[in-house]
Amino acid sequence: MANLNDLYTAILTGKLPVAVAITKEAIEENVDPQYVINEYMVKAMEEIGSRFEAGRAFVPELLMAARAMKGSLELLKPQLAGNHSRPIAKIIIGTVKGDLHDIGKNLVASMFEGCGFEVINLGTDVSAKKFVDAVCEYHADILCMSALLTTTMNYMREVIAALNESGVREKVKVMIGGAPTTPEFARQIGADGYSDNANSAVILAKNLLAS
């Protein structure tokens, strides 16, 4: 029987082959993939992210953990997305200009991919023009912006203004997230929604698409 605690540990310590092997066992045993992700994989990534922020883990460990999680998610994708080859929707995601944080943003991006979305990850320090250009180029359904600093979160307002000026605001839903952001801030800047974690981001995205 698949030991999901060992999966948590494998992702936390960046052991890709172990994570993949346990994930395969869980699939063979028909364990609910969403349960595996929510209760073990996401929590492992949250823990390594917390250690990184606290200076108890470093970039190589973070990257190894992300690689292990992505390996497991690749196996779970068919279970989550069913047999449909077309993505649920296209999502542009990035950390706003002036901000280089990407742990949470990358976790959200991985969750979206695992749940059947096509994700275009623009990385960090993304300008309003780059966000707008990507929305137009990829015909995105949702734009997700992240900020981890109070000094950069207000740039989200500029991105939404740029979307309006370009005439594409009505064509794309806008989600925001990151430590200093709040539901109230999302309303103030004209975003469509706010999420504080990867799980709720997926739920919010699906709700926005259905609205």
From TrEMBL:
- Look up and give the organism this protein is from: Bacteroides ovatus
Q: Which family does it belong to?
A: Belongs to the methylamine corrinoid protein family.
- Which Gene3D superfamilies does the entry link to? Cobalamin-binding domain (3.40.50.280), Methionine synthase domain (1.10.1240.10)
| Domain B12-binding N-terminal residues, every copy | 1-88
GO MF terms on file? cobalamin binding; metal ion binding; methionine synthase activity
Q: Source taxonomy lineage?
A: Bacteria, Pseudomonadati, Bacteroidota, Bacteroidia, Bacteroidales
Alphabetically sorted, this entry's keywords are:
Cobalt, Metal-binding
PROSITE patterns per the record? B12_BINDING (PS51332), B12_BINDING_NTER (PS51337)
What is the name of the protein in this document? Cobalamin-binding protein
Swiss-Prot/TrEMBL GO biological process terms: homocysteine metabolic process; tetrahydrofolate metabolic process
